[in-house]
Design brief:
About 55% of the residues lie in helices and about 5% in strands. The chain is mostly helical. The protein folds into two domains: about 5-95, Glutaredoxin (3-Layer(aba) Sandwich), CATH 3.40.30.10; about 95-145. Strand 1 and strand 2 (about 60-65) form a beta hairpin. One of its GO terms (molecular function) is disulfide oxidoreductase activity.
Length: about 150
């Protein structure tokens, strides 16, 4: 979820109720703020918000059903998750590919911090910051090409 997301705000009370019922369902329920954990949003390939996953014994399934408390509980109690196709092996959050994707999301956060430092702290114009990144990209490409 993200704090600014209207759909996430709409499901928040239902999700909190579902989390309170989690002991009776013998599951653990959590939520992750993708603005605070960009690596996880990359690892789980989050493209829409909110995104709900069911994980059991290292197998991940994306929940796409109705977002009512009853349907969420039924998904677990009636074991409806067994009928859902697991996330493909290469796209699984535990795969090497998605581990690399998480690294790219972290890297983009560092780039954003550098940009904010150049423009905010040092007071450089935005276009100068862009020029620095363009030059760095070209130099890295030339270095790798050698």
């Amino acid at each position: 979820y993200a704090p600014w997301c209207p759909a996430c705000q709409q499901i928040e009370t239902i999700w909190e109720s579902f989390a309170k019922e989690s002991e009776h369902l013998d599951i653990t329920v959590g939520k992750v703020d993708v603005t605070q954990e960009p690596g996880l949003s990359g690892r789980f390939f989050v493209t829409t918000l909110p995104t709900i996953y069911h994980a059991n014994d290292g197998v991940f399934r994306r929940y796409r059903g109705s977002r009512t408390l009853e349907d969420l509980q039924g998904y677990v109690l009636e074991r409806k998750w067994e009928a859902v196709e697991p996330v493909a092996g290469w796209k699984s959050p535990s795969s090497i590919m998605m581990h690399g994707m998480a690294g790219l999301f972290h890297f983009s956060g560092y780039i954003r911090q550098i940009h904010n430092y150049l423009t905010g702290t040092l007071g450089l114009h935005v276009w100068i910051s862009y020029a620095v990144f363009i030059l760095a990209t070209l130099l890295i490409g030339l270095f790798l090409g050698l």
